[in-house]
Structure formats: structure tokens, C-alpha cells
Amino acid sequence: MDELLTEKSLKTGLLSFGMSGKLFHAPFIAENNHFDFVAVVERSKKEAQRYYPNIISYDSVEELFNNVEIELVIINTPNNTHFELAKKALEAGKHILVEKPFVATSEEAKQLFELGRSLNKKVMVYQNRRWNSDFYSVKNIIESKKIGDLIEMHVRFDRYRSKIGSKIFKETPLPASGIAYDLGSHMIDQIIYLFGKPEKSLKLGTKNREGTQVEDYVSFVLSYGKGLQVFVTTSYLVADSGDAYVLHGTAGSFKKGRSDIQETQLEAGMKPSDPQYGIESENDQGTLTTFNAQNEKVVERIAAQSSTFSDLFGLVYQTVRNNHAFPVTEEQIITQLEILEQAFWN
Description:
By secondary structure, the protein is α/β, with parallel strands linked by helices. The chain folds into two domains: 2-126 and 311-329, Rossmann fold; 134-307, Dihydrodipicolinate Reductase, domain 2 (2-Layer Sandwich). Helices cover 34% and strands 23% of the residues. The chain has helices at residues 2-8, 19-31, 48-51, 61-65, 82-91, 106-119, 133-144, 168-171, 179-195, 261-267, 310-322, 330-341, and strands at 10-14, 35-41, 56-58, 72-75, 95-99, 123-126, 150-158, 200-206, 217-223, 229-235, 245-249, 252-256, 286-291, 297-302. An eight-stranded mixed sheet has the order 8-9-10-7-11-12-13-14, covered by helices on one side. The chain has a six-stranded parallel sheet with strand order 3-2-1-4-5-6, sandwiched between helices. A hairpin with a 2-residue loop joins strand 11 (245-249) and strand 12. It starts with a helix and ends in a 5-residue tail after the last helix.
């Protein structure tokens, strides 16, 4: 059976072994029998073989692209390089899985999706926060109708980084730079996944840190007409973050803090196959507030279901091998980028 799985495995190359490579990609393709982790690109530090002795460490992306055995390339390089590298990977005959943000503009996205179709290659976008336990809780509450019809939703994703970071592609005005593309892309994707394309959107932003060249506070207003308004906010200057999700409906409210349990566990060295992986602590439970028939307030603690990014990689495999539809659709990504790329409101 193992030999059969190996024969059918998807030979995969990774373009970077920084944080995203180490935490969000390598552990999942290395542990999954449907994947064969073949190679990585490391231009300076050569660390990957310490963790994965059997892989090849290339000095350049061109060397990896020239490996004819590699079928899938994971593009997890700086944001401003995504379009060029995705195009080259497709032209080299590879399927691609591209880190968020996919590219800088909706027009670039359309070009890559069309190129993929013309070459019969899959173009997939890695929106891993759809597979977070905190988002599962929100999605389940909305679908259960426990708070009735949703009328207002607030989503936040914050950090405290008062100093300018060392990653040039995030901190200088390059394509797809700034906090909107960095953290905002996660939240915009979740909202589009839940509700589709908004009727209207508004983008606000300010620069607050000394010496910053990009907005470090951004807020979006997404209007779905009568019945639902969504407010998405992200900031690098939040020292005491509160609830990540606040939902108000016709029958109650739900609040949930941000839970990066998978990231925390991966940073600590836990493997995705560990039975405790992706399980939140009781302290991270959401709060559901409703009123009973006697008009008395009822407050419940809601535990999240376990989550794993392994499910995303399983869908990548099925998309490439069995031509299944990838759940992060072209239309969703194009809509996301149209919202991200709009001008700031003055």
C-alpha cells in the first residue's frame, strides 16, 4: 500500500524555507503520503536538510523549475515576486500553489488563471486561514442561525510592531506591500468565502509609525446591502488585542478571540500528525449570548472543532490528481484583489 501511495505521490518543490516554508508548508507535504517533498530553494542559509535529509537544496528557483520530476511548486517568496515566479513556474510545466496575497492586482490574477488554463496546469491560492479553528467557530455559528439573521460583523487581525520590520517587501511601497495585503488578505478572503462579493466596499488607511512608508492601520467596510454590514480592521499598533470576531444578529451575539493554535503548535515543534494538533484550549472558547422565551439573557461558552491545514493540502492533491475543484476559486481571489487594490478613501 505504501508503494502504491508513493507511486501516486505529487512531487513537490518549495521556493523558500523561511517562516512560512518551515511552519506552513514543509511539515504538511513531508508527512502526507500523497506528496513527495523533493526540493527547496535556499539562497543563503542551508537549513532544510537538517529537518528533511532526503531533499535537494537548490541555490536558485531556475534550478528547481528545471527539475522535470517536480510537478507542483509552492510559491512562498516575497509578495512582489509572486506574479513573475508563478508565470515562470507555469511555463516550466508546473502546477502552482501560491501564498497569499496571490498577486498585487486583479488583472495579474486573471492573467495567471488564464495561463494556467491554456497550459492545463492548476493555479491554486494558499488561503490557509479558512482552516483555522476560530474561523470554524464563526462559520458554524452563522450557519446554525443561533444568533438569527446576521446584521453586523466586526473582524480584526492585529499585531504590535512599533518598529519598522526588516522585510522590505512588506515595509516599502512595492506591489502587494503593506498591512492590507499582509493580514487584511486573510480576513477579506474569509468574508468573501462566507458571503460572496459585497455590493460596495470602502478602504481606509493611515501611516502611524515613525518612518513608515506604508499604511500600518487599514480598515475596510464591506456592505452587503440591507441586513449585513462587515467591518474589517488590521493594525500593527495594537498592544492589547480584543476579540477577533464580533457578530450581532437578530437573535443574539457571538464573540471569539483569535486563536492561532496551529501556528503556536508548529512553532513549538508539534507535528500535524500529533493527536493534540489543532485543538484549542478551553480559554479560547467563543461566547454566545442570546435571550430565552422569558427574555432572560443566556450566555454560553462554545468550543471550537479541531482544525488542520492538512485538509487544505488534501484538497491540493485532489485538485491536481483527480481534477477536483479547488475551494479557493478564481472569482473569490479576483474579488479579494479588487477590494485590496482599491484606492484609499480620503
